[in-house]
Design goal:
Blueprint (H helix, E strand, L loop, with lengths): L26 E2 L7 H14 L6 H12 L3 E3 L2 E2 L15 E13 L2 E10 L4 H14 L1 H9 L2 H9 L3
Parallel strand pairs: 1-4, 3-5
Antiparallel strand pairs: 2-3, 4-5
Helix pairs in contact: 1-2, 4-5
């Protein structure tokens, strides 16, 4: 007796992998002080190297800083691109640099710089979540002085 062999179904294509908002390799702690624009380019380049943004977004972060400072108070700066650069964002993500000695950010002392790229309006949610964490002075101090695992844990809520 002959049996018809069942046609093998092709596996369904895997859905696009959603990127994590923060990867440990995008955290640099104990950085030496550097000029503000160099720091912005560094966090922007981390975003580009991780596939969150296309390269032009990095310069758009510098452009944003020319129109208004991204200094948020509490030793925190949150550089991000201008509205026109939204098309350069491929996935929402952040990159972090900490400066225990502090850096000058238009006359303000900054210890934590978090570069942000957000798809659509997600950047507002990201900004809000970071600002909320920084309201806790203990968490803000731990963020500025901690190792990469501490920074990762505070910003993601994961161990």
């Amino acid at each position: 007796m002959f049996f018809k062999k069942k046609k093998e179904e092709a596996p369904a294509p895997a859905p696009a992998q959603k990127k994590e908002l923060l990867y440990r390799e995008n955290i640099r702690v104990n950085c030496e002080p550097a000029p503000k624009n160099d720091v912005i380019r560094s966090v922007g380049q981390m975003l580009a190297d991780s596939g969150y943004v296309d390269q032009p977004y990095v310069e758009a972060m510098i452009e944003r800083e020319k129109t208004f400072s991204t200094f948020m108070g509490s030793g925190l700066a949150l550089p991000h691109g201008v509205e026109a650069a939204k098309k350069e964002v491929k996935a929402s993500g952040i990159a972090v640099m900490t400066f225990p000695k502090g850096i000058d950010w238009d006359g303000n002392e900054v210890h934590v710089v978090i570069g942000i790229a957000g798809v659509g309006e997600e950047h507002l949610d990201i900004l809000s979540a970071i600002a909320e964490k920084m309201l806790d002075e203990t968490a803000a101090k731990r963020l500025a002085e901690g190792d990469a695992d501490t920074v990762y844990s505070i910003l993601t809520g994961k161990e």
